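User: Structure with zinc ion, tokens only please.
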Amino acid sequence: MSQEALVAIVVAVALIVGPLATLRALSKRAAAQTPQRPAPLESNIEAELLAQLPVLAHLTPELRQRHVERVRAFLASKRFIGCDGLEVTKEMKLVVAGLACLLVLRPDAELFPAVKAVLLYPGAFLVPVNEPDEFGLVDDEPQERIGESWQGDRVILSWEDVQAALAGDGVNVVAHEFAHQLDDESPFEGAPHLPREFNGYERWSRVMQREFERLQRHRRPPVLDPYGAESPAEFFGVATEAFIQRGADLAQHHAELYELLRDYYGFDTRDWAWSA
Ligand SMILES: [Zn+2]
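Assistant:
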């Protein structure tokens, strides 16, 4: 698209959005005059987050503060939708937001701008498969999934598997699917937008490529889920899960990968223990 066309669109959008934004601001102010009871979620959010995610105690006070702010913003900006009869509770929202926001603790991080909604299923869910396999055939049988990340607007999760992560399972479906969102925000598959201190993608590509190929060769990898061998995007998802769920093991067996993710996410997970 030419620069002129882009400017024309931006101006057109500004003309349309301008009055709408004013209207919204007005109605918000009017609403603020009506006294409202403070939401209990707001008041205890820090303590409740710590109760649900005790690993947060390992973060520095500055990062914990930022985490709480991100979680608040996440809850205020993303819709939660219960599927298959699941009634989404305050606790579920807090846990999902709490886990997702671990991935955006860098000072410059954006809060998954593409994600408008989080769909929660009670457990694994079935999805029809539309993509042809290597023979060009489309399977009639729906496939079971525990999570999906849509490039457009949503992340879909199995609550049962979210809980498994809290109990120390190596799979963390929230970390996995939201890592896909970070990946989708950048132009490169298997990599997020890197902060300035990385000075480009050289280090990222070197470490990720080598570890990806290593996982493809390995029959029984000690730490990383073999599913990560499917593609660079899945590798980033799986590596992020291992960083969050099994930091000490990742640091021991894949030191450079651990350090890369530590430098990107901005905190250490070596001392984290999930299981009660
Ligand atoms: Zn995936």
